């Protein structure tokens, strides 16, 4: 009786631990399918948020590039109070003084002010025009990088989600084992009372039941930690509750996998991103080449200036106007071979990107083939382990019947129980490996 009470306490501790970790201090209840969990993560995960901010940052950078094609207009003004009016030396000969002498003379007024507006407009600058052409590709590259981050987050959410779903099955099997052993324990105690079993047989069953409760407690703790990890991955507050509504079956794992395993290199987001990187490298080459041709700019200025001996600029008085328009032509002649080196460097970087694309094709082929092999093996193992588990349960039931009628030994029933537990554990592992293999295959072909 004491052993049974101890087992009940262990079971109760497991339930309390799960409740504390998963539901305590919950403010919001969320019931999510795996798709809903992934969608939530794609909106709230920190990595995704920052990746999307990178897109917005690139948009602002593009606006800065675009500004180079717009007029640059400045309004300026200045006021000067000469505490000491500048002195100039005038040859004394002008005023009849001996040669070689100079007379100090103050020129100007104590106060001066001026104000005006200036305009500069690029008429032709090859680098500016290339920057304008590259804007869309830059945005596309940032967007594709964000999509790649989203894909990785989605894959991880799928894996953790289904790991927790599989853990539910593991708990169900443990509960069934506990119930099965408790019944056997009851029957064995009755047999022991009638003198047809040993006390050792009863003690062995008590130990096995306690071990199962302990294992169940550990699994519950692992599930609670898994829920916390999934929330963090999704960007959900840990204090909120999360209920997983999806189930997992052998049919789901195998569903539509043949059609989905057909792929093209361009289905992969990392391949798309590398292609965009190559386009940006090509724009770099073009930009440096166009930096070798002349730059033409238009400029204009309009200003007024006044000089006073007293501070009376707001009264009547002359303001002298200055205005002009002009063209500025800048012709690059020699830059110490800097431009040539930049062009050569950009060409090499483009070649590197092209090599990476070819290497990525090989990597994708390898990823897909390995993922297909793993999926085939994982699903075959899953089917085999499921059959094995069913058979082990059948063996256990038959052995138990023999034991109950006195034609079987306690060693046989213990062995059958161990084999059933092993078969169940192997099936749980195979089930999880199969869903992971499916996710990896879909990700490898770019169709997750």
Describe, in plain words, how this protein is organized in 3D.
It is a single chain. With about 450 residues, the chain is an alpha+beta fold. The chain has one domain (about 1-65, about 125-295, about 335-445): Up-down Bundle (Outer membrane efflux proteins (OEP)), CATH 1.20.1600.10. It is about 65% helix and about 15% strand. The chain has helices at about 1-25, 35-45, 45-65, 125-135, 135-195, 200-235, 250-255, 255-260, 270-290, 340-405, 410-445, and strands at about 30, 70-80, 85-90, 100-105, 110-125, 240-245, 295-310, 320-330. The longest helix has about 70 residues, at about 340-405.
Provide a quick synopsis of the model.
The protein has 448 residues and is an alpha+beta fold.
Helix content: 55-70%
The strands making up the biggest β-sheet line up spatially as: 2-5-7-8
Distance between the termini: 53 Å
Number of domains: 1
- Briefly note the structural class of the backbone: alpha+beta
Per CATH, the superfamily is Outer membrane efflux proteins (OEP)
Taking Cα atoms only, what radius of gyration do you get, to the nearest Å? 41 Å
CATH architecture: Up-down Bundle
Number of helices: 11
Q: What is the count of β-strands? A: 8
Q: Report the CATH topology name.
A: Outer membrane efflux proteins (OEP)
Low-confidence segments, given as residue ranges, are 22-26
Strand content: 5-15%
Largest sheet: 4 strands, antiparallel
Name the average pLDDT. 87
H and E order: HEHHEEEEHHHEHHHEEHH
């Amino acid at each position: 009786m004491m052993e049974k009470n101890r087992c009940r306490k262990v079971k109760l501790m497991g339930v309390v631990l799960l409740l504390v970790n998963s539901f305590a201090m919950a403010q919001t209840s969320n019931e999510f399918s795996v798709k809903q969990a992934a969608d939530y993560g794609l909106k709230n995960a920190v990595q995704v948020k920052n990746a999307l901010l990178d897109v917005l940052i690139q948009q602002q950078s593009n606006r800065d590039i675009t500004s180079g094609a717009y007029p640059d207009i400045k309004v300026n003004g200045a006021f000067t109070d000469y505490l000491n009016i500048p002195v100039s030396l005038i040859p004394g000969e002008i005023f009849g003084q001996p040669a070689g002498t100079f007379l100090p003379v103050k020129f100007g007024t104590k106060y001066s002010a001026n104000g005006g507006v200036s305009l500069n407009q690029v008429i032709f600058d090859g680098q500016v025009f290339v920057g304008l052409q590259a804007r869309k590709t830059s945005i596309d590259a940032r967007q594709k990088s964000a999509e790649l981050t989203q894909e990785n987050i989605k894959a991880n959410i799928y894996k953790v989600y289904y790991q927790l779903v599989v853990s539910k099955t593991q708990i169900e099997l443990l509960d069934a084992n506990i119930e099965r052993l408790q019944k056997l324990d009851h029957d064995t105690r009755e047999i022991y009372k009638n003198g047809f079993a040993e006390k050792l047989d009863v003690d062995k069953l008590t130990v096995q039941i306690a071990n199962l409760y302990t294992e169940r407690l550990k699994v519950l703790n692992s599930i609670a930690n898994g829920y916390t990890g999934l929330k963090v991955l999704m960007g959900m507050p840990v204090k909120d509750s999360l209920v997983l509504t999806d189930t997992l079956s052998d049919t789901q794992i195998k569903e539509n996998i043949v059609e989905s395993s057909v792929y093209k290199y361009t289905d992969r987001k990392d391949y798309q991103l590398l292609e965009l990187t190559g386009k940006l490298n090509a724009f770099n080459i073009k930009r440096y080449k166009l930096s070798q041709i002349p730059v033409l700019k238009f400029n204009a200025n309009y200003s007024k200036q006044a000089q006073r001996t007293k501070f009376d600029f707001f009264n009547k008085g002359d303001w002298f106007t200055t205005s002009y328009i002009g063209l500025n032509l800048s012709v690059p002649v020699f830059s110490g071979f800097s431009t040539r080196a930049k062009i050569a460097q950009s060409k090499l970087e483009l070649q590197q990107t092209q090599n990476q694309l070819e290497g990525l094709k090989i990597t994708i082929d390898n990823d897909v083939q390995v993922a297909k092999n793993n999926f085939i093996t994982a699903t075959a193992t899953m089917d085999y382990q499921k059959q094995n588990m069913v058979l082990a349960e059948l063996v256990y039931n038959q052995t138990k019947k023999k034991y109950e009628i006195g034609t079987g030994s306690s060693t046989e029933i213990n062995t059958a129980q161990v084999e059933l537990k092993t078969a169940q554990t192997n099936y749980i592992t195979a089930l999880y490996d199969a869903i992971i293999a499916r996710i990896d295959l879909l990700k490898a072909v770019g169709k997750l």
